[in-house]
Specification:
The structure holds 2 protein chains of 2 kinds.
Chain A: H1 2-14, E1 17-21, H2 31-43, E2 48-51, H3 56-66, E3 73-76, E4 79-82, H4 84-92, H5 95-102
Parallel strand pairs in A: 1-2
Antiparallel strand pairs in A: 1-3, 3-4
Helix pairs in contact in A: 2-4
Chain B: H1 2-15, H2 19-32, E1 36-41, E2 59-65, H3 74-85, H4 88-92, E3 95-101
Parallel strand pairs in B: 2-3
Antiparallel strand pairs in B: 1-2
Helix pairs in contact in B: 2-3
The chains are: A alpha+beta, B alpha+beta.
C-alpha cells in the first residue's frame, strides 16, 4: 500500500499535467476519458496519460490516493483537480485554462501531445 | 413547447425509477436535503455499448441543488455527492455524471 502511494506520488510529480484514464488518448475506452482528452487537447497543454486498465495496482490505488471513486482523474502540478464533470465545468467557465496558465504549464508540442508512454 | 416535452420526459423517468435510481435518489435526499434533485437514467442511450450490463441501470446523470454546496468548491461539492453515494460511483454504475448547484445557481433549461 505504501509502495503504490509512493509510485503514484512519483507519477503525478513527474509531469505538469497527468491524466489517469481508461485507454489511451488515441483510443479512449470510456466516454468520460474521451471527453477529458478532448478538453486537454482544447486547452493546448502538454500532458501525460496513464492507462489504468493496463495496471490493476494503479487502477485501485489511485482511488484511495485521490479519495475519488472514478476514472478519469486529472492532476496539475501534483495537485488533484477532479474528474471529467469538474474538468468540463472548469473548461466551460475558462477556469481550467486559467489554472494551466497560472501554474505555468507547458503548451503542447507535436511530440509531447498524445504521448501514451506508460510502463 | 419544447420545455413541456422535456418536463414530460422527466416526469416519466421519475415516476417509474428502477431500484438503483431509487437508491441514488434516497441516498442524496437524506444526505444533502436537496432543493432540486433529479436522477436521470441515461442507460437506454447506451444500450449495447460497453458498460451496458443489461440491467437498464448502468448510466446516470444526477442534478443536485443543495444548501450544502454553498461556499464549497467544485471538488468539495462532488466529494459530498460521492460520499453520500458510497459504493455506487465507480463500482455499481458504469457511468455517473454529477451536476451540483448551490441555491440560486440552478437554471432550468428552457426557462
Amino acid at each position: 500500500m505504501a509502495e503504490i502511494k509512493e509510485r503514484l506520488s512519483g507519477i503525478v510529480a513527474k509531469d505538469d499535467v497527468v491524466l489517469f484514464m481508461k485507454g489511451t488518448p488515441l483510443f479512449p475506452q470510456c466516454g468520460f476519458s474521451s471527453r477529458a482528452i478532448a478538453i486537454l487537447d482544447h486547452c493546448g497543454v502538454a500532458y501525460e496519460s496513464v492507462d489504468v486498465l493496463q495496471d490493476m495496482e494503479i487502477r485501485q490505488g489511485i482511488k484511495s490516493f485521490s479519495d475519488w471513486p472514478t476514472i478519469p482523474q486529472l492532476y496539475v502540478k501534483g495537485e488533484f483537480v477532479g474528474g471529467s464533470d469538474i474538468m468540463m465545468e472548469m473548461f466551460e467557465a475558462g477556469e481550467l485554462q486559467e489554472l494551466m496558465a497560472e501554474k505555468k504549464v507547458a503548451p503542447a508540442s507535436d511530440s509531447s501531445q498524445r504521448s501514451t508512454s506508460h510502463d | 413547447m419544447q420545455y413541456e416535452m422535456e418536463d414530460l420526459t422527466m416526469t416519466k423517468v421519475q415516476s417509474n425509477p428502477g431500484p438503483l435510481a431509487q437508491e441514488i435518489h434516497d441516498r442524496l435526499e437524506s444526505a444533502l436535503t436537496p432543493i432540486t434533485l433529479e436522477v436521470i437514467n441515461d442507460s437506454a442511450s447506451h444500450a449495447g455499448h460497453s458498460g451496458d450490463d443489461g440491467s437498464g441501470e448502468s448510466h446516470f446523470t444526477v442534478v443536485v441543488e443543495s444548501a450544502s454546496f454553498a461556499g464549497q468548491s467544485r471538488l468539495q461539492r462532488q466529494r459530498l455527492v460521492n460520499t453520500a453515494l458510497g459504493d455506487i460511483p465507480g463500482q455499481r454504475v458504469h457511468a455517473l455524471a454529477i451536476k451540483t448547484y448551490a441555491p440560486g445557481e440552478y437554471r432550468r433549461e428552457g426557462s
